[in-house]
Amino acid sequence: MAEHHRARSIGTGSAHAKAILLGEHAVVYGAPALALPMKQLTVTASAGWSHRTADGRYGVLFTMTGSASRPLATEASGSLGRLAGEVKAFLGVSGGPNLDVIVDCAIPPGRGLGSSAACARAIVFALADLFGRELSQSDAFALVQTAESVAHGRASGVDAQAVGASAPLLFQGGQVRELPIGCDGLFIVADSGDTGRTKDAVGLLRSAFEQNAGAREKFVRRSRELTDAGRRALAEGRSERLGTCLTDNHELLRAAGLSTGRIDALVEAALAAGSLGAKMTGGGLGGCLIALTRMDQAREVTQRLHRAGAAHTWAVPLKGSSRHAR
């Protein structure tokens, strides 16, 4: 590709948030995880040519906007600059004018909702669009996964897949497939207001495993059992069983030291309001809760969560299909 080839005057890309239903942390060790796309929380990236002096050696100047802009602007610009350099190298683009990239992010960072992966995916597709190139999903995943490994340490890949997914998915060992759904209901995701760091949580769990013989095998085995049971319950329309799997998974993560007092209080509030199940979601040490509820309980669950200290809540519908149930 010519160094100064300009296929577009502007390129755009987008992605969305995600929540982990079951299997976070254990997925790093090869166990399955179930992930839920949250399409109401989005990231849009716009890339164009710049006459300004860009920051760093990548020739890219980033501007962050949207409700999550301040933390992203201070923490993510370096890693996103490296990502832009990797995308250009992958596309065979070298030299040329500087670039302006504007990232509009509505996903709160540090909440386990995939903000870093979603920003990376949106930027990858915006740059590909700018240079007039098509990216396969596997190529996009590889580029986003590289950025995720910088941001979080050893990244499983589930976030990189889920922020572009159109339906709930099963992720295991780098492979992904869409989940059959036989349940109707509603997931309520509640933000505790506390920022967590996935890299810190991963390190905490790894240290615990190193200090206790057999702890990793026990944790991964139990997580696998709950994720497999939850997958079957989701397919077979057994909402109560799915809810029980969520709550039991929270107890596993809490016992590992990954929850917080505020998250535990939100779990208790959701269950007291009639949720079928509730758990922390994502890396932990802060972040969000996810609760499964019936539609007629959603109002009470949401109100209880806010009274218990939730900073924000989002409703994600779960719609079953008889042709999927089995």
Automatic annotation (TrEMBL):
GO molecular function, one term: mevalonate kinase activity
Record pathway: Isoprenoid biosynthesis; isopentenyl diphosphate biosynthesis via mevalonate pathway; isopentenyl diphosphate from (R)-mevalonate: step 1/3
Enzyme class: transferase
InterPro entries linked: GHMP_kinase_C_dom, GHMP_kinase_C_sf, GHMP_kinase_N_dom, GHMP_knse_ATP-bd_CS, Mev_gal_kin, Ribosomal_Su5_D2-typ_SF, Ribsml_uS5_D2-typ_fold_subgr
SUPFAM superfamilies in UniProt: GHMP Kinase, C-terminal domain, Ribosomal protein S5 domain 2-like
Keywords associated with the record: ATP-binding, Cytoplasm, Kinase, Lipid biosynthesis, Lipid metabolism, Magnesium, Nucleotide-binding, Transferase
Entries under PROSITE patterns matching the protein: GHMP_KINASES_ATP
Subcellular localization: Cytoplasm
GO BP, sorted A to Z: isopentenyl diphosphate biosynthetic process, mevalonate pathway
Entry EC no(s): 2.7.1.36
GO CC terms of this entry: cytosol
Domain of life: Bacteria
Positions of the GHMP kinase N-terminal domain: 92-161
Main location: cytoplasm
Location of the GHMP kinase C-terminal domain: 232-309
Protein family: Belongs to the GHMP kinase family. Mevalonate kinase subfamily.
Protein name in UniProt: mevalonate kinase
Organism: Streptomyces mutabilis
